[in-house]
Amino acid sequence: MGMTIGIADAKARLSEVISRVENGEVIVIARNGDPVAEIRPLRRSTAAETVARIREIAERVAKRNEGKGPWPAPDRRMRDAMHDDHRF
Fold this sequence. Notes:
Layout: E1 4-6, H1 7-12, H2 14-22, E2 27-31, E3 34-39, H3 47-64, H4 78-82
Parallel strand pairs: 1-2
Antiparallel strand pairs: 2-3
């Protein structure tokens, strides 16, 4: 884990905090000593990773929907199909 810093210090040293996060550190922001937020590096993915993930999701959806007809049914509007289980 990284460092814990108060809100006022984080505000005053924001550039330093961001630099540390860019280097992989996780920073916890505290108010009166109680942790309230966490700043962590974003996980960046390549285009190939994103395409692979989309394909995985598409395969799972296709497998789950095997044997079912198209959604929504050709004679229904998307809006109506989305609200099938809602109670008004």
